[in-house]
Specification:
This protein is an alpha/beta fold. It is built from 13 helices and 10 strands. It folds into 2 domains: 173 residues, Nitrogenase molybdenum iron protein domain (Rossmann fold, 3-Layer(aba) Sandwich), CATH 3.40.50; 129 residues, Nitrogenase molybdenum iron protein domain (Rossmann fold, 3-Layer(aba) Sandwich), CATH 3.40.50. The longest helix is centred in the middle third of the chain and has 27 residues.
Length: 318
């Protein structure tokens, strides 16, 4: 019974968050139909494809892309899709979703394409590929090239338009990348540390938190949960994060919008026992998701900007 209630609620969230795009996506409009697994990818696709395509996002709201399993209606989306863009690098590891992505002849893993071109740009964390490359705007902007190429191949009559929009989007992303980098770098180096709910921010730490050419940049970030928030977490993980906070005299930890806060609460309690006052930030970060309409984080760039402002505001209080 509980399972059916959960599936019903998920379906309601999906419908309310993406009603218009899904409505046109499921109709026979004659346009190229593009399905993206995550909202971050769907946002790029929408900017590049414009009115010339029908697009929709599979994993909406606060649903976890790491563990997402297909629900009623998802099969039809896969059947309708002319193109599917997914993150790759092991992000979408839910069994049913992974199987459908493997079977679809026009499914493109953006991270999988990009890592073949520049392996050193991508991170290995505890011997696993880190899939969260959208946390570096410049790195994620490289996804524009395979998106433009795939759209142009499917719809050559609009290839020039897709290319032009791709260049406009790339320039916008690179400009925002520089602005946000400069904002974060204004925070004193000794305060530029981040503790969040799970390991979604290593690319962010390398790009925005680290000093120029800092060799041990990975020490700028830690979290109690691993690359996927559905992974196992131990007492040792909690203890290591509390030691990290004490070592660097960090007084704030950041929850994420779609991750349980219990681990952070335990960390705060341990730190207080050690004499370090730590609080949970009032503004959560977006790790694996974007905001819904009205949050101010409903586009990819707005989501990253939200995270930067939340960090800057909270860390400047110290």
């Amino acid at each position: 019974m509980k399972r059916w209630i959960l599936l019903f609620l998920i379906s309601c969230v999906a419908f309310s968050c993406s009603k218009a795009p899904q409505s046109s996506f499921m109709s026979d409009s004659g346009k190229v139909k593009v399905l993206s697994t995550t909202a971050m990818i769907d946002d790029l696709v929408a900017e590049i494809g414009g009115e010339e395509i029908d697009h929709t996002c599979l994993i909406v709201g606060n649903l976890d892309p790491h563990s997402y399993e297909l629900v009623k209606g998802d099969d039809e989306k896969f059947f309708q899709a002319d193109l599917i863009f997914y993150n790759g690098l092991g992000l979408e590891h839910g069994a049913s979703l992974h199987e459908h992505l493997e079977k679809h002849s026009n499914a493109i893993g953006l991270g999988d394409v990009l890592i073949r071109e520049d392996q050193e740009a991508f991170l290995m964390i505890d011997d696993q590929l880190d899939p969260h490359f959208w946390m570096d705007i410049e790195l994620f902007s490289r996804s524009i090239t395979p998106i433009v190429a795939a759209l142009s191949e499917k719809d050559p009559s609009h290839a020039t338009l897709y290319k032009e929009r791709g260049e406009i989007l790339r320039n916008k992303m690179l400009e925002k990348d520089q602005v946000l980098f400069e904002k974060i770098q204004k925070i004193p180096s000794e305060k530029r540390y981040l503790v969040s709910s799970h390991d979604a921010f290593f690319y962010f730490a390398r790009k925005y938190l680290a000093e120029s050419k800092e060799e041990n940049w990975e020490k700028r970030f830690t979290a109690p949960e691993g690359l996927a928030p559905d992974g196992q977490m131990s007492v040792v993980d909690i203890q290591e994060v509390s030691e990290f906070l004490c070592e660097h005299q960090i007084h704030v930890v950041f929850p994420e919008t779609n991750v349980n806060r219990d681990a952070l609460k335990k960390i705060v309690a341990i730190c207080r026992e050690k004499g370090l006052h730590v609080r949970i930030a009032t503004t959560p970060l977006y790790g694996d998701t974007m905001g819904v309409k009205g949050t101010g984080a409903e586009t990819y760039l707005d989501m990253i900007e939200h995270n930067v402002h939340a960090l800057a505001d909270e860390l400047s209080k110290e």
